[in-house]
């Protein structure tokens, strides 16, 4: 696996997205429904919904699908009731995992996750077992060609962001989850388009992985979790040398 960083995982996610459009549309639809249910169907007043609509557009999700998903969230159309659940677990070599799930059947979701972890050398853990190894925060990845670091720092801090990290891949803005909407607005106002924006679980401690067999097993576990319909996002703290 590539050295652990969000940019490399986004590149991997894009490859998965291209190969599994139908699954991506299904996941986006669930997120759109939940976002509209919690914050309303007007994207002007719902930054989470607005961000998801941009993701849907980038994924070429049909506009009718987006509209229906939002209307299910606002109650204008009937639909199943989804709930968001966060699971924690361990992969091979004690690598920590946080898995965000959106499901209409908690029993099925837990069984599927447990089976995936067990099959690939890991196990589900109790709530709080690994969460302390991650920072729960808003995260925006912005290509370096869009803006200079100094200019972005001013915009981000004025909007309430906590940190700005710049690597060869690009800029990473982090903020408290409660400041996510405000930072989103501030970036949009300056015409900036993040390559990725989400409420993330960012590793604060990492597990070095140098054994090829372990790296392969972790890759298989990631693939198995990606295949599950209920899984929306997977965060882990492995770091390859």
**Secondary-structure element series:** HHHHEEHEEHEEHEEHEE
- The third-level CATH topology of the domain at 6-74 is Arc Repressor Mutant, subunit A
Instruction: State Rg.
Output: 18 Å
For the termini, the CA-CA separation is 9 Å
CATH architecture grouping of the domain at 6-74: Orthogonal Bundle
Derived structural class: alpha+beta
- The shape is globular
What oligomeric state do these chains adopt?
single chain
The helix count comes to 8
Q: Give the % helix.
A: 40-55%
The CATH homologous superfamily of the domain at 6-74 corresponds to Integrase, N-terminal zinc-binding domain
Name the strands of the widest sheet in spatial order. Answer: 3-1-2-9
Q: What is the count of β-strands?
A: 10
Quote the beta fraction: 15-25%
């Amino acid at each position: 696996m590539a050295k652990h960083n969000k940019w490399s995982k986004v590149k991997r996610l894009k490859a998965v997205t291209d190969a599994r459009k139908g699954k991506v549309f299904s996941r986006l639809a669930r997120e759109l429904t939940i976002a509209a249910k919690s914050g309303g169907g007007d994207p002007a007043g719902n930054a989470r919904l607005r961000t998801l609509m941009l993701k849907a557009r980038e994924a070429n999700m049909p506009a009718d699908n987006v509209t229906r998903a939002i209307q299910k969230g606002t109650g204008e159309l009937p639909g199943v009731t989804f709930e968001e659940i966060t699971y924690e677990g361990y992969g091979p070599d004690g690598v920590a995992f946080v898995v965000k799930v959106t499901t209409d059947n908690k029993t099925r979701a837990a069984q599927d996750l447990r089976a995936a972890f067990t099959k690939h050398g890991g196990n589900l853990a109790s709530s709080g077992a690994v969460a302390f190894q991650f920072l729960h925060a808003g995260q925006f990845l912005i290509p370096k060609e869009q803006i200079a670091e100094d200019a972005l720092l001013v915009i981000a801090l004025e909007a309430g962001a906590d940190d700005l990290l710049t690597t060869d891949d690009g800029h990473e803005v982090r903020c408290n989850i409660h400041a996510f909407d405000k930072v989103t607005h501030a970036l949009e106002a300056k015409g900036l388009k993040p390559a990725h924006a989400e409420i993330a679980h960012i590793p604060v401690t990492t597990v070095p992985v140098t054994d090829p067999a372990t790296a392969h097993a972790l890759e298989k576990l990631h693939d198995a979790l990606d295949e599950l319909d209920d899984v929306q996002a997977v965060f882990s703290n492995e770091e390859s040398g």
